Amino acid sequence: MTDTARPTLEAVAALAGVSRATASRVVNGGDGVRPPLVERVRQAVEELGYVPNQAARSLVTRRHDAIAVVVAEPETRVFADPFFALQLRGISKELTAHDNQLVLLLTEGRHDHARVGRYLAGGHVDGALVFSLHLDDPLPALIRRAGVPAVFGGRPEPDTEPTVYVDSDNRGGAREAVRHLLALGRTRVAHITGALDQTSAADRLDGYRDVVGDADPGLVAHGDFTYFGGERAMRELLDRRPDLDAVFAANDLTAVGALRALRERGLRVPQDVAVVGFDDMQAIVEQSDPPLTTVRQDILGMGQLMARRLLSALRGDEPLDSGSSNSVILPTTLVRRASA
Amino acid sequence: MTDTARPTLEAVAALAGVSRATASRVVNGGDGVRPPLVERVRQAVEELGYVPNQAARSLVTRRHDAIAVVVAEPETRVFADPFFALQLRGISKELTAHDNQLVLLLTEGRHDHARVGRYLAGGHVDGALVFSLHLDDPLPALIRRAGVPAVFGGRPEPDTEPTVYVDSDNRGGAREAVRHLLALGRTRVAHITGALDQTSAADRLDGYRDVVGDADPGLVAHGDFTYFGGERAMRELLDRRPDLDAVFAANDLTAVGALRALRERGLRVPQDVAVVGFDDMQAIVEQSDPPLTTVRQDILGMGQLMARRLLSALRGDEPLDSGSSNSVILPTTLVRRASA
Asked: Chain B window 28-87: which residues touch A at a Cβ cutoff of 8 Å?
């Protein structure tokens, strides 16, 4: 192809066999145009590779039809933990259904947050979906200053900006995991935490304590939501308390790391030590040896719900005021497999 | 925090103990300001959460300090194949070093490319890095029409728009893999292809044919660069040619899928069948059983080089004219482990 002239809206209208006004209505949102005509115009747009003059259009509609997703994690973690892929998939599904572009803003860590704030303030997106916040995270404040409507994934720290968020019942799910282990007759139930600068990890630790009490701090070891963190923490626990008979791990990756450390010491799962994870990531729990009993959270659904909530606010249907009634906590379910 | 006023440049200057003019120079690029002062201003910017008025700034500089990365794959593949994570890591490293925001544009497949084109045309980024193009991909044309400077990862089809690209020596690497298998005394070397609508897969198939000739089409099975594609193709090959004694797989994920199918049939690697992959993804090749002999390509380096090339063009140092001398082909290396 060597033609460098941009195709015009007139060319689109001619190819679709509709008036310029109809083609324009479809290109700018499609309200009040019959579906078969919308389809014809869309096909013509695709065939010609028509690109509307977005700058002009944004001036009129003040919409970019683009939503930023901000993940406050280095991309090594974003890509290593299928949790993020699944949440992004939920978001992407919802945004695509509403013809919004997903704009993923990657950072190398919190020192990059100011740059993300600048991009958000630059008028490139209509709103933001933010997940994986940490303790004292500057992101909520940066996003508020940028003036971009936002919905958060995961409960923020109580002392940060009030926000509208979608979260799982981390504390309730953890309680159910530990109660299940006790019901199996286990008496020395250990816990490997997640990264405790995140509320999801803190909430799961609280749920564990709700059930076992504060009795034995030797049974709690610190992980970081990664495979290697789980492996290391499990070794620590076994050195300290070789008599433990169950472990509740803060997520599935951590649990699989723990399984490896248990195998390395010649311990059988679940006969010697029962193990429960959190997340229910198919790619992990069904391949693990043995298949992992875990607390299922609806990660895909969280992503979808976040996107839906934001789009509805942008349409003006449901403003994002941050009363607690405006946030959503999704229930979790224990899924039994072979490890506990 | 309850203060909703944006911090001003004056406040930044006061906190840093510099003049407003100096603070402004740092915020707008830092040319000609002594490094210790730059550091003080940056700290003040961070402390106050100062966000420059990007719209005003873009009007003057016509820069967004943001680069789009467009991956022409559904996000399920982007997240399942560590190839993309590594390439993004290379890009991210380079962009961060030059204080540019990485803007990842996810699509659900080629029907979404028009939307990506609109976002690119909307003036939200200074340039684009594009990878994983397919046969007849509309992206190069959309990007040209959007008027955004772009560097491509992977050689485009010969009949598409001329582009500046960075690629690995896929054909040469494949030749080396097959020659290695022949040097081990193997005589019936099979090939599992990648997704043949991508030039990387087509080039590796050509490299295989360069060495073995077209003799036995029964020894070629079609994969798609995924684990399951490799497993399925290996079963096909074994049904067709149970006497095969070596396999060159188009990438590491494919090779690991093939290893599983071989194990399932009770065949030993490398004694019965020798296996070579392509990529050298640490997370895969060292965990596989047995560890995988593979053709290493410098994926991180490709990402870095793409970003470096684009930033240099944006600075005006090296224009992106698409002569072939302007593209880069990186060499590959055979890495021997236990599988061949």
From this structure: 45-46, 49, 51-55, 58, 64-66, 75-76, 79-80, 82, 84-85
Residue B124: closest C-alpha in chain A: A124
Please determine, for the modelled complex, whether the ipTM score is greater than 0.85: no
Domain count for chain A: 3
CA distance B56 to A256: 51
CA neighbor of A161 nearest in space, from A151, A171, A169: A151
pLDDT in tens, A227-241: 999 999 999 999 999
Say what the pLDDT of residue A4 is: 44
* Residue labelled with tokens 């909430």: A203
Residues B83 and B162 in one domain: yes
| Predicted TM-score of the model (pTM) | 0.75
Supply the pLDDT for residue A325.
Answer: 62
Give B192-239 pLDDT, tens digit per residue. Answer: 999 998 899 999 999 999 999 876 889 999 999 999 999 999 999 999
What confidence tier does A323 reach under pLDDT thresholds 50, 70, 90?
low
Whether residue B67 contacts residue B95, with contact meaning beta carbons closer than 8 Å, is answered with yes
Residues A163 and A304 in one domain: yes
DSSP characters over B266-327 = T--TTTT-EEEEEE--HHHHTTSSSPPEEEE--HHHHHHHHHHHHHHHHTTSS-----GGGS
Structural domain for B158, as ranges:
66-167+300-329
What the block records as the tokens of B300 is 């991180």
Judged by CB atoms closer than 8 Å, whether chains meet at A103 and B119 is answered as: yes
The alpha-carbon gap from B89 to the nearest alpha carbon of chain A, in Å, equals: 7
Same domain, B155 and B222: no
Question: Does A106 lie in the same domain as A153?
Answer: yes
Cα–Cα distances (Å) from B57 to A121, A122, B265, B329, in that order, read: 12, 9, 64, 37
Q: Are residues B276 and B181 in the same domain?
A: yes
